[in-house]
Amino acid sequence: MMEIDWSVGQILALLEKLNLDDNTLVIFISDNGPWINFGNHAGSTSGLREAKGTTFEGGSRVPCIMRWKGVVPEGVVCNKLTCAMDILPTVAAITGAPLPVLKIDGVNLLPLIMGNTDANPREYFAYYYRVNDLEAIRNERFKLVLPHKHRTYEGFEPGMNGYPGKVNEQKETGLMLFDLWRDPGERYDVQLMYPHIVHQLTSVAAEVREDLGDDLTGIPGRNRRPAQKIDQN
The whole model's pTM is what? Predict the structure, then answer.
């Protein structure tokens, strides 16, 4: 953590030295969750469920801090649904760069960055893992976890001094609904309390599968494009 603080400080100091400080958007964001099975060499999920290599919140939720003097309101916390994929279209909107003709997964966050609290550029988020497994779907408040096998760190003693502890790579989970506003640690399944939310998010998941596919259910998806291939369009 001290090295991160020092490194970020060096970058900010250089921007100031080059007189770019007042005209630069600085985005600080981390990779997805920590390897908590490395014990004293691991990071912390601060009570979120599971960690790296899962689509539970401990494996996917990360901090994001933005600074753009005179544009980003100071000291404001934004709870809107965003992700790292949104950085590309956001920077494109700021710089006036054209986006690809074909649809991309990110959305433009510039209205949120500029302090528009009524903006809602992302209504839903689909949690994909492995090649193309749809493991969860969420809106701003609720997250529907779909049946799948996943890694779990729970029940295993973590390693120490650079050596990893054990994990289970094949734990099975069924359908679950979590209220992330009240239960960010994903401990209490509330699908019986909110059957209409289960229905709503299940319908969204079906639309996502038709669009992007889902290997878990064998749906290829109409708009799924092959990976590692450059499309000239």
Answer: 0.91
